[in-house]
Amino acid sequence: MFCVRASSWPLKLLFPKALREDWCGTCGCCRTSSFAAKSGVTQGEGSRSVQGEIHHIRGRFCGRGPSRLAPNGADRFYNLVRYGYFTNAAFFRVVPGFVVQFGLSADPAVNKVWKTATIQDDPVIQSNKRGNLVFASAGPNTRTTQLFINFADNARLDGMGFAPFGSVVDGMAAVDKIFPAYGETPRQDLIQEQGDPYLKANFRDIDRIKSARIMPVVPQRRTLRLQ
Q1: Cβ atoms 47, 142 nearer than 8 A
Q2: Are residues 51 and 2 in contact, defined by beta-carbon separation less than 8 angstroms?
Q3: Residues β-bridged to residue 33
Q4: Could you tell me which of 190, 187, 34 has the C-alpha nearest to residue 113?
Q5: Is 27 or 135 the better-scoring residue by pLDDT?
Q6: Dihedral of CA 93/89/112/65: which sign?
Q7: Could you tell me whether strands 93-95 and 132-135 are parallel, antiparallel, or unpaired per DSSP bridges?
Q8: Per-residue pLDDT tens over the stretch 30-40
Q9: In Å, what is the CA distance from 108 to each residue of 28, 179, 195, 209?
Q10: Domain 2-215 falls in which CATH fold?
Q11: Contact, 73 vs 196, CB < 8 A?
Q12: Which of 135, 141, 204, 210 is most buried, by CB atoms within 10 Å?
């Protein structure tokens, strides 16, 4: 399970002890070298039950992503959150009635590292329903870091290979409030190449993620039923 909460609170990230030496959380240099060094050895760590928290500026919403739905996607999301990838990332594509998309770093150096870090496709086990979280792709086995949340039931995406790995379970109204005025105008190639300066110069009101962290898993309560 992970939560996305709107707030301007300062960044708080939780990291395994083994990563604290190569991560300062502030400079792009150590971030990029850490990503490059670790991206090839973290596969599979997201298959466990995970709870995380993301802060942005519009509201609070929580989601849950069982790894059985799309294990490769769940694993990649886990590691992106753990390494702080989403910090200051913008919701750069907002199409009401369809999807809201994010997952390009505000730091061009980080984008460069992850641009070719593709993962294998997952089978589509669950339909693209409202609130489902899904990795975007440009074709077979091309998923990297970009995700979208379905604003509506988009079953037509199922046949295109878009495999949901989780869903928003609380606070979907906050997702609906993400600033929509820029639509699909922000250019993904310029976000990748120029990062935050491009967005600040052209889309000053764009919504952003403030922070993300992995949190301890809280076991779900089970209801016993008498026969």
Answers
A1: no
A2: yes
A3: none
A4: 34
A5: 135
A6: negative
A7: unpaired
A8: 444 454 444 43
A9: 9, 23, 5, 16
A10: Cyclophilin (2.40.100)
A11: no
A12: 135
Radius of gyration of the CA atoms of the chain, in A: 17
pLDDT in tens, 66-123: 667 888 998 898 888 888 898 899 999 999 999 999 999 999 999 999 999 999 999 9
Give the HSE-up count for residue 32: Cα atoms under 13 Å, Cβ half-sphere: 13
Counting every residue, how long is the chain?
227
The Cα 225–Cα 203 span in angstroms is 53
By the 10 Å C-beta count (0-12 exposed, 13-18 middle, 19+ buried), 9 is classed as exposed
pTM of the shown model: 0.77
Rounded to 5 degrees, what angle do the CA atoms 91, 192, 99 make?
A: 30
Closest CA to 32 of 119, 111, 99, 88: 111
As a whole number of angstroms, the distance between CA 5 and CA 217 comes to: 17
Cα separation of 11 and 54, whole Å?
9
